[in-house]
Amino acid sequence: MTEQENAIRAGAGSAHEGDGTAPRVRLHDRDSELRSVEAAVDQLCRGFAAGGTEIGDLLTFSGRPGIGKTSLLHEVRRLAKLRDGATVLFARGGERQFKDPYHVLRQLLQPVLSDLPPDVFAQVMGTWEEVVGPAMGLKQPKAGARRLDPQGVRDGLDYVLTQLAPRRAPMVMIVDDLHWADGESLSWLTKFAIRSSELPVLLVFAFREDESDWPTETQEFRRAVLGLKARRHELNRLNLSSVTDMIRAELGDKAEEAFCYEFWNVVNGNPFEVIALLDQVRDQELEPVEENSRQLRELAVDATGMTLKSWLDRLGASTLRYAWACAMLGTDIRVDLATRISTQSTEGARESIKQLRKQRVLTQTPNGNLEFVHPLIASSIYNTMPDATRLGMHGIAAAEIENAGLGLLAASRHLVETHSGEGDDRIVKKLRRAAIEHQLIGAPEAAQRCLHRALNEPPADEIKAEVMYELGCSALLTDPVATVNQLKLALDPDELPLRPELRVDATFRLSEVLAHAGELGEAALVCQREAEQTVDPAGRQRLQAASFMWHAFRKSEEDGPGRSARLGEMCRSLNGKEASARAVLAMRAWDLTLRGAPSAEALALADEVLDGGRLPKGLGWTDTTWGFELPSMLCLTYIYNDRIAQAERLAADAIIQFEVAGWSGAHRGFAYFLMGLARFRRGLLAEAEDFLRRAHRISERIGDMLPLAWDAVGVLVDTLLARGRIDEAWQLANDSGFHPPYHATAMVLPDAASLYGKLLVAKTRNAGAAAALTEAGSQLEIRGWRNTVWAPWAGHLAIAIAGDEPERAREYAQKAVHDARAFGTASAIGSALRLYARIEHGRQAVELLEEAVAYLGQSPAGYEHAVALVDLGAALRRVGRLDDAQECLYQGIELAQHCSAEGLVDRARQELANYGLRPNRVGLRDFRDTLETLSSSEWEVAKRAVQGVPPQRIADELGVPIGIVNRRLAAVYRKAGSGPDGLASALGLPPQQRDLGRLGDLND
């Protein structure tokens, strides 16, 4: 009987199950589990054959070590590989490799991804190739690549699997020994398991359920795995009859009942222990009779609790050393590496392998490598290594792995296990290089392990602070507390000082993490103090600018006007176009915007920052010199100064660049927020809601009520109010804690108190609104911030108190209009006038609203314009101008529909219906209206289609793919309300007429 069959028949795991070609062997006491396996595989394959895609499932097997989980996974693989077209992916966690980042995922995905044709590979990877490729070991990071955010890698893997699964469906993904999976793989697998039902994928996990069998680092994931919705099977011990069958199959029918009963009792029905004890019984030539049953317990101790002495007795010193080398390497063991690590000759290694296979310790896999028959054996052998031997062999393993061309990433696992205290500069250098490589694949925890080990070496005194700086930066995206602690140590005056440029950068990084944690005052102070001691002008300017930046984001400030004046002086003293000078200009532009200074001044500074409408080198979204706050300030400046198209271009660049860089945490969340805010200001409310909800989901994933969460919730509440969903907005605010005192230290974008007061006004809680808005105005006036778009407190306060204090309300409304006129944007003036009209009546209200509509019609604020039109229509109706009222209301409805402001549409229709007017405009759309909706590219396609030019020829004439032409034609037909036959008439074009211009040509 072969080793594989011996293991399978016991249900104790097999030495290799890679090819799925082994004959099916009956598993004892596993009938119900096998039925579940067959049903799961059959359901997947049948569902996919019937055209299903959202047919995934999760199957789990758990139990104590040696209970037979691996054997069941072998059966899953065998069954799946018998199905035509099925893709079977397999991986196994390793006790020695659970700190190797992406070790399990690389086993799973590397073979199938590397086997894809180049064109399919490009489609599957999409824009994530530079993120997922290096993490999965499919390519080297690009020269100059930045560190990857682990969440970005996980998001990239989500995308890749959604593209890969349908192309390789039905797909069965199997992970054995999940409890030893590396943290990076485990975090993705647990999240992917939740949504695997959306794909044609069967996930199969096998793991030990007991907490003590999971590494401390993965305990949180253990709870997540146990909470997954799955077909769960906890494997029980074998019954007496099955164990008796196994004993007699090995020792013959002469085995007595009493002996078999005691044997079963001793091994407690554990299949692995059955095999191990049978080996001992056979080696000792023990007769399976009742009088020998008392010796079984003693033999079982040697069989399952192998000590150094027992392994030496069984294998001999030379063979045991080879086994130690294999245990160090973990799974899929290369023979040549194990040979060199064990320092044996080729012939000696060959003899050791022969002995280890004979003793059922190792087996050979289909690719020629080695594996342990069972992970319990690998653990037993590794744990018998004397400490000095283990440390020395890890050093040899690190060197040999690097010499074999496998790189520092693979070698670093062994480097961190070597003996420290030698002060070896070569090891420190290698560990620092390995840390960089780990960060480039999105494995900051592995980088930190390398740098901690480098500090323990220890490094030379002159570079110790530098290693601390690197350690702090390695945790920048994942562990703010660790970053703060390490950077403070690196900046400690008692340590040998960092190089000046690194000291400036370390200070900026420290301030950045403090700011992201809400400690904006401390962040500003850290930069200010260091700037006073920095000799280099560029470094000093960077820190001074950073101090101004963090002060600008604070919730409250002791000397806001004074800081603004100092920033203005600094701005006036600038010369040159370097990044630091442009950074100061961006801050000043945002400062002027908040202060409500003339918009032209802020825009002039903002435009000076850009280079051809794009962010200049050194101030990019993923540039680490300044961080993403600087371009965010610039984007916000454009949003609040009615240059929303420019802001959208910047936000779109941010989303793409963060995605390409693999930065999927707060960076991408804030980019979504900026795009959502821009869409809201433009009046595209449905799109705004989508982007803001994405930002909110990311903020919830990162932590509780970070500044990003406040920003996203605030604008999302405002968006819901605009869409007429007042109760939903109120519920969201309550659920998210969006009410005083807001974030403890960071200001909310836009002003939280103004938004909350606006919400209370919408809920007709005027007393509470008045109190909140009065307090908001007081705080903003102290800082000198009078932007009525960012903080429209005065206009809404006027509405809240108008019923009780009409004169005071008029004063606040007039103040808002005055401040808006000083700022000078059309949307600010129009919105302030519209709010003022809410507290006036008759002709005065009409005049205010007519002026508001005129201003808002010149702005990109579509929703505000729609509200003003509806308000004006209602005001005109009240003064008896019904024809004018009807026209304004119709225009308001059309614009509100475009904005997805359903509540405003309903209000306008009700206004029309109440006075006998039609709630919808009667009449057909003029062809000129359709022409105005067509883009220039759609118009070019439409002209040719009217002339009877076929799509392929249109594509050739325009030099674009046929798919784009078809999409543009679909848009033309939809907007024109006609198919090809009636297109000419719908567009007001004579058929077959060539070389038509647009509307001007028709007028001619």
From TrEMBL:
Q: InterPro entries given for it? A: AAA_16, P-loop_NTPase, Sig_transdc_resp-reg_C-effctor, TPR-like_helical_dom_sf, TPR_rpt, WH-like_DNA-bd_sf
**Region (Disordered): which ranges?**
1-25, 982-1004
What is any one GO biological process for this UniProt entry? regulation of DNA-templated transcription
Enumerate the Gene3D superfamilies for this protein: P-loop containing nucleotide triphosphate hydrolases (3.40.50.300), Tetratricopeptide repeat domain (1.25.40.10), Winged helix-like DNA-binding domain superfamily/Winged helix DNA-binding domain (1.10.10.10)
GO cellular-component term (any):
cytoplasm
Locate the coiled-coil region(s) and give their ranges: none
Q: Which GO terms describe its molecular function?
A: adenylate cyclase activity; ATP binding; DNA binding
Q: Which UniProt keywords apply?
A: ATP-binding, Nucleotide-binding
**A Pfam family in this protein?**
AAA_16
Query: Orc1-like AAA ATPase domain: which residues?
Result: 30-204
Q: Which SUPFAM superfamilies match?
A: C-terminal effector domain of the bipartite response regulators, P-loop containing nucleoside triphosphate hydrolases, TPR-like
What is the protein name given in its UniProt record?
A: ATP-binding protein
Which organism is the protein's source? Answer: Kitasatospora xanthocidica
